[in-house]
Amino acid sequence: MQTAVVVEIDSVAEVAAPQVQALLESCDLGMQGQARCVLGPGAPGSRGAAHATVVWYESENPLASVEVRLRGKNGEKRKARELAFSQGDPPVERWRATGFAIAIVVGDIIAEEDQTSPPAVPASSAPRETASPASERTGPWWLDGRFSMARGIEGAPAALGGELGASRRLDARWLLSTAVGFSAQQNNHIDVLRPSACFGVGFLAPQLWNHLAFSLRVQPRIEYIDATGEDASGAAGHAGRWAFGFGQALDAAWMASDAFGVVGGVELRELTGPTAVEEHGLEVALVPAIDFAVQLGVQYAIP
After folding, report:
1. Which of 9, 68, 161, 288 is buried most deeply by CB count within 10 Å?
2. Three-state DSSP state, 98
3. One domain, residues 157 and 277
4. Does the reported pTM lie above 0.90?
5. How many domains in the chain?
6. Which domain holds residue 53?
7. 64-103 tens-digit pLDDT
8. Any alpha helices (H) in the chain, and if so which ranges?
9. Which residues pair with 77 in a beta bridge?
């Protein structure tokens, strides 16, 4: 049994004492005597304790992010939970609900270790959980590796390739994202290679089901369209050009754990204009200005 739950609060110096006291009291109540909730690193009894970190996001819809770390028989366990509040909720009640949330998460981890039920919390005092798309991720950064299939050249088999991306959550709803990609496509005797890069912003939608998160990204992109081919006589030719445009992507991620998940999405890409591939002055392939891609891969959330 843990002797203490050590609570660390982001920017604790700016928090009023009654609010902190309300959090600790509700945490103690939720633990039902199994542990004592204390404030800050190095507090009495913190050795071997659970450590809870609370971060507040003050915006139009205030959000509290709670992460609990506890070292048990099978190593360190981590669990995260996010709570959404309205502007009309009194500050002290927000902090009291957050204290109950800490107790619930600690109880969940203890239950996994000891195969016992987590501490009960009065239904009238239980915090309201947000439908946050990042509630199962342990940190603000995550990486994607995806297989991609796009339409590409008109009348040709689909362009196949891949993409590596990185995203960072700015707050409860907004993120920054960047990616590099590559695709290859053949059309008769023409080979087209398209390395690309993009950087932009995204919006995290409310969660609809447990572990399933949706996001929308808008990203300026740059591509290099490289075409190589041979004519009927066997003579080879090569040409390339840079192309600029935008991409809009809708992603869905299902997190199997706090760190790993499966991600898929669709993306609409618009370039500034089409690219014609010509042979002896005759057009033999056309890369359209508007393209559509389907992606599937894996996601890793960095703790």
Report:
1. 68
2. helix
3. yes
4. no
5. 2
6. 4-125
7. 888 888 877 667 788 888 888 887 888 888 888 988 888 8
8. 17-31, 91-114
9. 70
